[in-house]
User: Fold these one by one.
Assistant:
Number 1:
Amino acid sequence: MSQPLTAHQVLQRCDTDCWQPAPETPSQVSALERGKVLWLPRLAFALRPEELPLLDEAVVDPRRKNISFQPDSGRLKGVADAQHDAPIRALMQRHHVAAQQLLAGLLPEYLPWVHSPMNTLRLHPVSGWGKKSAWRKDDSLLHVDAFPSRPSQGERILRLFTNINPAGVTRDWRIGEPFAPLAQRFHGRIGSWSPVNSWLQHRLGLTRGRRTHYDAMMLQLHDAMKADDSYQKQGPQAAFAFPSGSSWICFPDQTPHAAMGGQFMLEHTWMLPLNALQHPERSPLRILEALTGQPLL
Ligand code: SIN
Ligand code: FE
C-alpha cells in the first residue's frame, strides 16, 4: 500500500501574481525550511510573442538535457544553433532578474546570502527522459538533489520553477515526505566515505571543490532512493499537477520530488550558505549529523 500525503501537507500556497511582491507580503521562509513546496498558482512568466518559437525541442543541443545560463559570467550552454543565442540569452537574463526580484519580496532574509545563480530552460517533454537516461539520472524517480560534480559542502540548493507551457499542459510532480523521516529511513544504507577518494577526485578535476562526507551521504541518499523500487511505489508521496502559468519554490536537497509529465519550464537555482537559514537544525546537514552523531563537513 502506498502512503499518500495530501497536497496540503506538502504545499504552502502563496497568491502573489507579481514578480515584485508587495512589501507587506509575509516572508515564506518558515514553510520552505520545513520542506514544503511554496506554490505560487498565479505567478506566470510571460514570454514575448517573438520568443514563442524558442519553445521547440530542436533548440536544445542534442547532447544536453537543458539550456543553461550563468548570469554572473554570462555563460550560455546547450543552444543547438548559434542564431538562437541572442534571444535565449535575453530571455534567460530577464528571467534571472525577475527571479531575484521575487526572492527579494518573498524570501528577503536570503537575498544577501544567495550566490552562484544559474537558470535553465527545459524544452524536452518529461515523458522522453526515462528512455534515454540511466536510472541515476532519471528524475522521474523520487529523489533529493545532490550534484555529483559540484559538491555543495553543506550549502543549500534553492530552486524556483515556472511552467511556461503555451498549450496549458501541466507539469506533474510527485512530492515526498519531510527530510527527518526520510533520513531515518535510509541512513543505515548510506554513509561510507573516503577522504582520499574525495581529494583525488578534486585533484583530477572530477569535482569542483572537495566532496565532503555530507556530499557523499547526499549522493548515496539520492541513489538509494532512486534504486528502491518499493520506496518509489509505496513511500509517502503526493501527486501534484502544476498548471501552466504557475510557479513553485523549494529546497530540492531536502524535499523528495519526481517529475512525471509536462514540457517547457524555466528553472532558477541559487546556492545558500547554512548560516542564512532561520532554522539550520532542519537542514539535511544538521539532520544527518544528528543521526550519525558526527560532524559531516
Ligand atoms: C528535478 O528537479 O528533479 C526535475 C524537475 C522538473 O524538471 O520538473
Ligand atoms: Fe531534482
Note: Residues 85-106 form the longest helix (22 residues).
Number 2:
Amino acid sequence: MSQLQLSKDSWSSQTVFIMAAVGSAVGLGNLWKFPYITGENGGGAFVLVYLGCVLLIGIPVLLSELALGRAGKANPVQAMANVARENGGSRLWGLLGLNGVLAGALILSFYTVIAGWAVSYFVDSLKGVFIGIDANAVGEHFSGLLANPYELIFWHTVVTLFTVIVVAKGIKSGIEKAITFMMPGLLLILLVLLGYATTTGAFTQSLNFLFAPDFSKLTWQAVLTAMGHAFFTLSIGLGTMMVYGSYLSKEYSIVKAGLWIAFADTIVALLAGLVIFSIVFANGLEAGSGPGLLFQTLPVAFGEMAGGWFFGTLFFALVVMAALSSAISLIEPAVSWFDQNWGIKRVKAAWILGFIIWTIGIGTVLSFNEWSDLHFLGERTFFDSVDYITANIMLPLGGLLMAVFVAWILKDDVRSQEIPLSGNLMSVFIFVLKWIAPIAVMVVFSTNLVADDAVVTMVLITFALYAIYVWNAKRDKS
Ligand code: PFF
C-alpha cells in the first residue's frame, strides 16, 4: 500500500493537543462509569487493580499509540499500514486500525445515549426540577426517563448531531475550540463539589470505600472490568490517540503529553468517585446500583446544597461537555479514515457515520425499556453486550497488539525518536510492552475461559496472533 494518505491537519500547540487528548480521556468513563463499576465491584481492591492497570499497561500503551500515530501520520488503518511497511511488518497490521475504527463507532453508539441522559438532566436542572428533591424522587425521575424510548431517542439525536457538527468542522475550528474552554471548567466544578462532599458527614466512609482494599470482594471478572476500564478511560486501544497523535508535530514530547493525560484522567475519576460515594453514603443509597448511580445521587446533593441550582446546572453542563469532547474523539478515527482512504470528504463522512452510529444507538435506547428482557451476549442486554465487546475485548486486544508492534516490530531508532526515554527507562518500557502488558491482558482473558464463550475465542485468537507476530518480528530482525 502506498503512503499517499497523510494527515494534513495539525494541533496549534502542545498545550492544545494535551487538552484535546485529556478531553478525549476525561468523559463519561470518569464521571459515570468509574464510580458505578467501582460500586458494583466492592470499592478499594477494584480501585487498586484499576490504578495498577493504568500504570503498568495504560501508560505504556498510551505512549505507544501516540507514537504509532505520529510515525504513521494518518488515520489508524492507514497509519498502521504505513508504519508496518516502513518497519518491515505485515500489511495485515491495517486490521488493527480497522478494529479501532469499528470499536470507536460501537462505543459512540451507546456513548451518545448516556450523554443524552446528561443533557436531559442539564435541562431539568436549569428548569429547577431538582430543587429540594429527595433521593426517592430522583430515583423515580431517573426510571421515568429510562422508561421512555422517545425521550431517550430525542436526546441521543441531539448529542449525535452536536458530535457530527463539531467533527465536520475539523481540528482547529471544531475540536480545539470546543476543548479549550471545557477542561479547566470541569476541574473547577469538581473541586467545588469535593468541598461539598466533605460536609456530607460521609466523606471518610467514601475515602475508605475507595482506598481501603478488601480483596475478598475481588473476582476475576472484576479484574477484567478494571483492565477494560483502564483502556476505556484513557481512550486507548482503538486509535483515537493514534489519530490525535497523527496531528502532532515532531517537536512536541509524547512522553510529557502521555503522563499528563494519564494523570489528569486518574485524578478526575478519583475525585468524581469521592464526591459521588460521599453523597451515596450520606443518603443511605446503594453503592452497587449500576449505571444509574451518577444520575440518582448528584441531584440529591444539588437539591439540598446552597447554590445547588447553579452548581447542579453547571455540573451537568460540564458532564455534557466532557462527554462531547470524548464523543468527538470516538468518531474521528472513522471520519479521517473515510476522508483519507475513501475520498469521502470530512463533512460528508461525519454525516454518514453519524447516521450509522445513531441507528446502532437505538438498540441501546431500547435496552432500557422495550428490549430490557432481550439478551444478546449471554445474559447481557444490547447495551451491556456492546459495552462488553468493546471495553473488555476490542480495546484490550487493540492495545495489546499496539504494544506488540512497538516492542517487537518498530525499528529501534524510530522508537527512541518518538519516545525518547533514557537507557534504563527505555529497557523497562520495552520489557513492559513485550511481556507484562500482553501477558496481563492474555491472563485476564483466559481466566474468563470458563465464564464466557466469546472470550474463549478471543483468547485463542490472541494467543495465536501473539505467537505469529513475535515469530515474524524475530525473523525480520535476524
Ligand atoms: N475515555 C472516554 C471516557 O472515559 O469517557 C471514552 C473514550 C473516548 C473511549 C475515546 C475510547 C476513545 F477512543
Note: Residues 14-393 form a domain with the Hydantoin permease fold (CATH 1.10.4160.10).
